Amino acid sequence: MAQVVRRIGLSLGADICWPICYEALLRRLDLHIPFEGDTLTFDVERVSIEPYDLKQPCRYDVVIDRLTHWYHTSREWIKKSILLDDLYVFNNPWSLQSMEKQTSYCAMMRLGLNIPDTWMVPPKSYDDTPDLQHTLRSYARMFNLDEVGEKLGYPMFMKPYDGGGWRGVSRIDNADALRAAYEQSGKLVMHLQKAVQDYDQFVRCVGLGPQFRFVSYDPDAPLHDRYRIDDDFIGDEDKSLLADITMTINAFFGWDFNSCESLRAGGEWYPIDFANPCPDSQVTSLHYHFPWIVNANLRWSIFCAATKKRFRQALDWQPFYDIAADDSLSQREKIRAYAKIGHERMETERFEAFCAEHLGHLDEVSREFFGSDVARDAVRQKVQALFPAHEVDDFTQLFFERIQQWRAS
Ligand SMILES: Nc1ncnc2c1ncn2[C@@H]1O[C@H](COP(=O)(O)OP(=O)(O)OP(=O)(O)O)[C@@H](O)[C@H]1O
Ligand SMILES: [Mg+2]
């Protein structure tokens, strides 16, 4: 019986708070997990950025990646480590690199979800590349934006087809506003999307492996109040549907970690934004929900590292399409069947048994940790990075108090 170390790498950008908490909690858990005749212990390290030989072996069993969407050196290192060293990474870097919002809309339309009607329009202006003039002169048709607006109907949202972080998003109520917004849109390739109106719930469902958290979201509040604290805003049926929708999206795209925004209007749920495979994990936005993310991340990464979960090499969409094409199934039945594929791919049963057997003390250890000075200091460091000096004390106090509310709940 050998002592075996499983290594988890954190590939980080501006994340400050959750890695500190993750590392401290992993130490406090003090894991010695019997697995297939060995005893597993766990190490966590931050992945450094430096020149590498493509044949350099990878030290990690699992990497939690927060850089792929914008830092290419790390992304390519991750891809080479999957190809050459069987690294398990979340999220799948190829999928993350190529599946924008528009792709996620199209896929979920095919699976029969309630995606609001959406058009794409060519951009207003361009970088002058060598072939541009010839291409546009030959093929770009003059179009009448008013007509597109009429076909889609008002109110609508204009937003980039590959958007994130509210960049370039505007609500549009009439043809004049549409023309003005298009004039302003510059080089962005834009969607026009029918607005979901009169919604009574706006939920962000965060999925991390087969774990889900439902957060009521207020888009009009200041950033630190957008994730609301209420726990009890939807019933079990809604939760089960939102979890199944999120699982469907994540399994379809090979994402373990994603957040799905849906609006409820007239009793129906409309997913509007679910290509978020590097979801906000900062205490300054999540506050009350922050410990959930850290704990969920620990559970999932420890499970994947311990069991040497195999990185799925193919996304394999056909099983989803087969269900979508089965006319004998209702929409809810289809979504349940898609989610079942997700649970099989993510090995939910095995994961839950693993957590029950080996991570039963996590809740207690983390409840204690999130009341500690180390946790408070992690909050402070993130606040210091984002807020002006004179607000640091107050906001540290505010976010830490909300975490204490989570501990009490
Ligand atoms: N079809 C829609 N109906 C109603 N509201 C919408 C719709 N599309 C977008 N919105 C509003 O605009 C906001 C931003 O849109 P969206 O989430 O698609 O952009 P984003 O840049 O991905 O935002 P983030 O990165 O914060 O998730 C949403 O939070 C919502 O308030
Ligand atoms: Mg959004």
Instruction: Give the % helix.
Output: 40-55%
Beta strand % = 15-25%
Gross morphology is: globular
> Biggest sheet, open or closed, and with what strands and sense?
5 strands, mixed
Give the total of beta strands.
13
Mean pLDDT over the full residue set: 97
Distinct ligands, ions and cofactors found in the model: adenosine-5'-triphosphate, magnesium ion
Described by its quaternary structure, the protein is single chain
**Count of individual helical segments:** 16
Domain module tally: 3
Radius of gyration: 23 Å
Structural class: alpha+beta
Low-confidence stretches: none
Protein architecture, described:
- With 409 residues, the chain is an alpha+beta fold.
- The protein has 3 domains: 96 residues, 3-Layer(aba) Sandwich (Rossmann fold), CATH 3.40.50; 78 residues, ATP-grasp fold, A domain (Dna Ligase, domain 1); 189 residues.
- It is built from 16 helices and 13 strands.
- The strands form 3 sheets. The chain has a 5-stranded mixed β-sheet, with helices on both faces.
- Helix 8 crosses helix 12.
- The radius of gyration is 23 Å and the shape is globular.
- It starts with a strand and ends with a helix.
- The relative contact order is 0.14.
- The mean pLDDT is 97.
- Magnesium ion binds next to loops.
